[in-house]
Amino acid sequence: MQNKQKLLGLLGLARRAGKLVTGEDMVLAAIRKGKVNLVFFAQDGGQSTKKKFTDKTNSYDVAFTTALTRQEIADATGMARSLIAVADRGFARKMQEYLKQEEDIQ
Q1: Strand, helix or coil at 65?
Q2: Which fold has domain 2-102?
Q3: ∠ Cα 31 86 95 (to 5°)
Q4: Strand 20-22 to 63-65 pairing
Q5: From first to last of its 106 residues, what are the pLDDT tens digits of the chain?
């Protein structure tokens, strides 16, 4: 559980640093351009959107996780979103470490 708190704090820091991409169209474009390293999709998000992004991230070899809820993403970033992507390799690498310790990354 402590790793989840660290992850949420790091997500907020990435937001303040301007290293997050939000919105379906923007995230899709960033995945296609190879500009994102990790995609978060809310556990309580829509299944058709989840499938679309699962397929897209697998196709472009981008890490994808459903480790957080929409409320957790909103609390950490200050944005009510069910989909966000991390556009900084350093932030993404550290977040993946926390996720692997929680075994929540695909």
Answers
A1: strand
A2: 60s Ribosomal Protein L30; Chain: A; (3.30.1330)
A3: 130
A4: unpaired
A5: 588 899 999 999 999 999 999 999 999 999 999 999 999 999 999 999 999 999 999 999 999 999 999 999 999 999 999 999 999 999 999 999 999 887 755 5
As given in the structure block, the two tokens for residue 53 are: 């992004």
Beta bridge partners of 39: 64, 85
Give me the residue spans of the domains in the chain: 2-102
As a three-state string, the secondary structure of 55-101 is HHHHHCCCEEECCCCHHHHHHHHCCCCCEEEECCHHHHHHHHHHHHH
Residue written as token pair 């692997």? 100
Residue located via tokens 């996780």: 65
Is-above-0.85 flag for pTM? yes
